[in-house]
Write a structure and sequence with these properties.
Layout: E1 15-21, E2 31-37, E3 52-60, E4 68-73, E5 77-83, E6 88-97, E7 109-112, H1 125-131, H2 147-154, H3 170-177, H4 205-210, E8 233-237, E9 261-262, E10 274-292, E11 303-311, E12 322-325, E13 333-352, E14 360-361, E15 363-368
Antiparallel strand pairs: 1-2, 2-5, 3-4, 3-6, 6-7, 8-10, 9-14, 10-13, 10-15, 11-12, 11-13
Length: 376
C-alpha cells in the first residue's frame, strides 16, 4: 500500500505572523510572536487528507538553518515566547501525518524584532539609559511630547520640559508653531522650536505668546519698552489750566495717575484740537503710546478721538502715524503702529467724551522698539 504524502500548501503559507509583542515580557528582556495557519485539505494526489496529525514550528537565526523545532500538535495557531529583541528570526512550518511522515517546509517567514521599548515611547530602553530618561514613562519631562519624538524628530531635550528656556514647554511650542517648528524666523541658523527668541526682537517666545504677540514677527512685541517719563519733557502745549486747578501739562508725564493735564476752563474755553508736544530725550523708533484718562472726578476732558505724530526735529511732522477713536472710559488705552523714527511726539486731542471743548489726561507713555540704533 502506497504511503499517502501530505500536500503542504497552506495557501500563501496560510502561515502568518499575527502580531508581535515586544514589551509583555519586558522583565525577561524578551519578545513573543503569534502565528496562525490554515490546515492542508488534500493529499498530493488530490484525495482528501484524513490522517493529519499535527504541525512542527521551526525557527532560527539564519535562513533554512533552524536551531529550534517545536511540535505544536494539531492546532492552527501558536504563540512563541522568549525571543530576543533586535534579533532577526526565520520561521517555517511543517505538517505530519499519523504515520509520522513530515511535509516539506512552508515558505519562510522572516521577522526582525525591534529594540525593547518598555514604555512604547519610540526610544529603546538601551537609549533611555543613554539619555537618562525613564524606560517606564513615555514622557519623562511631562511636556506633552514622548521621549522618542523629542530625540528622533524634534531634537528637544526629553529630560527638560522647556528645552530652549523661552517660558513655553516643548509641547506647547510645537502646538503653537505647527509645521513652522523647523523654520528659522530670524535666519540665525537655529530652528524656531529651539530658539528662545525666534524673531530676535529681544523677547522670549513664551512671553510673546502669553501677551498675545507673534514670536515669528520682529515688529510684534508683547509689551514694547516705555521711555522713562523722567527722560521726556513737555516742549509745548496749546492750553493748560493753571488758575482754578493744577492742570499743568507736566502732569501727563509725572508718573502719578491722580494728577492730570487739563486745558483751560476757568477763564477761557479754547476749542479743540488740543496738542501736547513732547521731547523724548533721544532718537527712538516709536511704535505706540499709552493714554490713561483722568482717574478721579468726572470724565470731563476724556479724549475719544485723536491723532499722533512723530518727528525727528519737532518741526517737520508729516502725516500722522496713528489716529482714530478711543473708548469713552477710564481704562488705559494702548495704541501700536508700524513705527517711525524720531525724537518728538505730538498728541492731538480732536474730540471729548461729552462734546465739550476740554481735554484732560492723567498719564502719557511712549512705546519704542528695543535695540534701535539711531542714525549718526
Amino acid at each position: 500500500m502506497r504511503e499517502m504524502r501530505l500536500r503542504f500548501v497552506f495557501f500563501l503559507i496560510s502561515f502568518t505572523l499575527l502580531f508581535v509583542l515586544l514589551s509583555l515580557l519586558s522583565s525577561l528582556q524578551a519578545a513573543q510572536i503569534e502565528f496562525v495557519w490554515s490546515p492542508p485539505q488534500f493529499n498530493t494526489d488530490g484525495t482528501p487528507l484524513t490522517n493529519l496529525a499535527g504541525y512542527k514550528l521551526y525557527y532560527g537565526r539564519s535562513s533554512r538553518n533552524y536551531e529550534f523545532v517545536i511540535d505544536v500538535g494539531n492546532r492552527t495557531s501558536y504563540t512563541l515566547s522568549g525571543l530576543e529583541p533586535e534579533q532577526t528570526y526565520y520561521f517555517a512550518l511543517t505538517a505530519y501525518n499519523t504515520s509520522g511522515h513530515e511535509s516539506e517546509f512552508s515558505p519562510e517567514l522572516v521577522y526582525t524584532f525591534p529594540p525593547l521599548d518598555t514604555d512604547g515611547d519610540g526610544l529603546p530602553d538601551r537609549e533611555e539609559e543613554l539619555y537618562e530618561t525613564s524606560p517606564t514613562l513615555a514622557d519623562t519631562d511631562g511636556d506633552g511630547v514622548d521621549d522618542g519624538e523629542e530625540v528622533n524628530l524634534y531634537g528637544t531635550n526629553p529630560c527638560l520640559a522647556d528645552t530652549d528656556g523661552d517660558g513655553m514647554d516643548d509641547g506647547g511650542e510645537i502646538a503653537w508653531w505647527g509645521e513652522e517648528w523647523k523654520g528659522d524666523a530670524d535666519g540665525d541658523g537655529v530652528i524656531n522650536l529651539l530658539d528662545a527668541d525666534a524673531d530676535d526682537d529681544g523677547f522670549p517666545d513664551g512671553i510673546e505668546v502669553e501677551q498675545g504677540a507673534d514670536p515669528a514677527n520682529f515688529l510684534s512685541l508683547p509689551f514694547p519698552p516705555l521711555i522713562p517719563q523722567e527722560e521726556m519733557q513737555v516742549v509745548w502745549v496749546d492750553s493748560e489750566e493753571l488758575v482754578a486747578e493744577d492742570g499743568a501739562a507736566e502732569n501727563a508725564i509725572d508718573g502719578d495717575p491722580t494728577t492730570i493735564w487739563h486745558t483751560e476752563w476757568a477763564q477761557a474755553d479754547p476749542p479743540p484740537p488740543h496738542e501736547l508736544l513732547l521731547d523724548l530725550g533721544a532718537y527712538y523708533w516709536v511704535e505706540g503710546f499709552r493714554y490713561l484718562p483722568r482717574q478721579t472726578g468726572s470724565l470731563n476732558g476724556t479724549v475719544t478721538a485723536y491723532q499722533l505724530y512723530v518727528s525727528a526735529d519737532g518741526v517737520d511732522w508729516g502725516e500722522p502715524v496713528a489716529g482714530g477713536a478711543l473708548a469713552p472710559d477710564r481704562r488705559e488705552k494702548e495704541v501700536r503702529f508700524a513705527g517711525k523714527a524720531g525724537r518728538f511726539v505730538r498728541f492731538v486731542a480732536l474730540e471729548e467724551i461729552h462734546g465739550n471743548p476740554w481735554t484732560s489726561l492723567a498719564e502719557f507713555n511712549v512705546l519704542i522698539a528695543p535695540g534701535y540704533t539711531p542714525p549718526q
